[in-house]
């Protein structure tokens, strides 16, 4: 029996593939922030790889969370400007909230990408936007509701 790295194994494997199977395939992965923000996919119009799906959903979650936390931070600074330690409290709360939503975004984006890969489906760029912004929206809704207080 030959080891998997031998030429014999590779030639057998190549013989099983149809002729021209590796030609004209685009293996590029769309991991540019500019592509994500413009919803433009290089090559075909869908995201096929797990890494692409995870990255696109995560970046939309990151940017929408950054937008929400920036708006809330500005509101807190204006509201607590006369407080003795208002700016420090604002900085600590915003940074902790953003880091918590960042950690949750990494995990939930990976879960969405795994479900799509296991199902064998491709993801449209608009779906990545909906999932990413939806994660932030659900975080805001759960944060303002009293669901966590009942647990």
Structure keywords:
151 residues, mainly alpha, 66% helix, 0% strand, Transmembrane protein 170B, TMEM170A/B/YPR153W-like, transmembrane helix, transmembrane, membrane
Summarize the entry for a quick read.
This protein has helices spanning 7-16, 33-38, 50-79, 86-119, 125-144. By secondary structure, it is mostly helical.
**What fraction strand?**
under 5%
Binned, the helix content reads 55-70%
The end-to-end span amounts to 59 Å
Instruction: Give the low-pLDDT segments.
Output: 6-15, 20-27
Number of DSSP-assigned strands: 0
Q: What structural category characterises the helix and strand content? A: mainly alpha
- Tell me the series of helices and strands, N- to C-terminal: HHHHH
Mean pLDDT: 79
Question: Radius of gyration, Cα only, in angstroms?
Answer: 22 Å
Give the helix tally: 5
Largest sheet entry: none
- Count of the domains: 1
Apparent shape:
elongated
Secondary-structure map with pairings?
Blueprint: H1 7-16, H2 33-38, H3 50-79, H4 86-119, H5 125-144
Helix pairs in contact: 3-4, 3-5, 4-5
Structure description:
InterPro entries: TMEM170A/B/YPR153W-like (IPR019334). It is a multi-pass membrane protein. The protein has 151 residues and is an all-alpha fold. It has one domain (7-150). The protein is built from five helices and no strands. The chain has helices at 7-16, 33-38, 50-79, 86-119, 125-144. The N and C termini lie far apart (59 Å). The model is unreliable at 6-15 and 20-27 (pLDDT under 50).
